Amino acid sequence: MTRKAVIVGAGIAGLAAALRLHEIGWEPVVIERAPARRNGGYAVAFFGRGYSAAERMGVLPALRERHFGAVEMAYLKPDGRHRFTVPRDAVRALLGERGLTLMRGDIEEVLFEAVHGKVPIRFGTTVSAVKQADHGVRAVLDDGTVLDADLLIGADGLHSKVRELVFGPEERFRRDLGHVVAATTLDHLPDGARERAFTTVTRVGHIFMIANLGRDRNAAFFTYGTPDPAAELAKGPRRALEQAYRDVTWAAPNLINDLSDDNVYFDSVSQIIADRWSDGHVVLLGDAAWCVTLFAGYGSSLAIGGADLLGTVLQRYPDDIRAALREWEAELRPEVEERQAMGRRNTGSHAPASRLDLLKRDLPLRLAGFPPVTRMLRRHLRFH
Q: Which of the 8 DSSP states describes residue 34?
């Protein structure tokens, strides 16, 4: 008998799970709240468990086609004057041979193309109720559709509806790191931003970055510390960023003024801390389960790696889904918890809270071209 899965969320985790379950002979269907596939996102380093999983799942060649190679990291003062640069050779050494530089949207696109025509994706709806039985689960969608399956996968992100319905309210699991983040794609490269580079302005408590990964592949990224992330989110992205970055005169004012609410990701930097990721025939995956945050720099890799491992254990225990989920979590949790701890430690690197934090971040970057420092940074960032 063919096993069936309902996957809620058509992001990286959900699409990777759909591809992996299709590979092992399951019949997955993907449910996505958004009316259509979303594009864009910010630049990410893709490596480790995710790289190995992409290789096994057959999508690595397509990801490598979108890999931009090593980028230069240019650091500017708030008025646009140069501070220092980390050369491409040093960044290449940090990533190693099994590391890629990608736009987050490129990863989603590759996975979407891999499942297209194989796995049905229903846009514009999401789950509204979940009912479990001894041998399966029933998902009721908000358009009235009822789907019965052997497994329900909640891959619907930080604000997961599946997690809320099955495990409890978000407040029980969310741990705010005292920062907010905004990211948006750009249709042009602002004056002064470098090609094939991450151009970054840092002042105490704030980072503003322009990422260029080739023609028409530009993104802006903001993150800053705040004692009350909810109050910042209530302002909306444009007003909040105008106030937070009023002292940054290079590029930021025009970008913020041109922001469109439907083309910007704006949220708190939060982790999900849960003592279990499955309940019966329901499992959480990706940010819905753990959300290591951008400060850990490993979310996309963990999403694909977690989906790959999920398919492996389900294939290993074809008649005992609960045993498969227990083994999956036992193997994955130590790495997730390590990355979450790294994310909490790295807040000072991403948005230095003091001049001392800024100095501690900048000194090794200024010396990154020296092999001993490169090796130290690779160990610190766990680029392996």
A: S
29 part of a folded domain: yes
For 172, other C-beta atoms within 10 Å of its C-beta total: 12
Name residues whose C-beta falls within 8 Å of residue 86's C-beta, 6 or more positions apart in sequence. Answer: 72, 73, 74, 75, 365, 366, 368, 369
Residues 272 and 288: their CA atoms lie apart, in Å, by: 7
- Considering the domain boundaries, does residue 200 fall inside one? yes
Query: Is there a domain that residue 221 lies in?
Result: yes
Range of the domain at 158: 4-41+53-68+102-173+273-345
Cα-to-chain-centroid distance, residue 58? 21
Tell me the two tokens of residue 331. 């193997």
pLDDT tens for each residue of 52-85: 999 999 999 999 999 887 788 899 999 999 998 8
Residues 141 and 166 occupy one common structural domain: yes
Write out the two tokens for 229: 């992330």
The neighbour count for residue 240, using CB atoms within 10 Å, is 22
C-alpha distances in angstroms, 309 versus 26, 68, 159? 15, 27, 23
323 and 204 inside one domain: no
Contacts of 172 (CB under 8 A, 6+ apart): none
pLDDT digits (tens, 9 = 90+) for 233-289: 999 999 999 999 999 999 999 999 988 877 899 999 999 999 999 999 999 999 999
Q: Is residue 303 part of a domain?
A: yes
DSSP state for residue 135 in the 8-state scheme: T
Q: Is 168 exposed, middle or buried (0-12, 13-18, 19+ CB in 10 A)?
A: exposed
The two tokens of residue 158 are 């930080």
> Are residue 156 and residue 300 in the same domain, yes or no?
yes
Residue 217 DSSP symbol:
-
Segment holding 137, helix H or strand E: strand 136-141
pLDDT category at 368 given cuts 50, 70, 90 is low
Number of folded domains that form the chain: 2
The one-letter amino acid code at 291 reads: C
Amino acid at 280: G
- Same structural domain for residues 135 and 236? no
If asked whether residues 20 and 113 sit together in one domain, one would say yes
Q: What is the mean pLDDT of residues 361-378?
A: 64
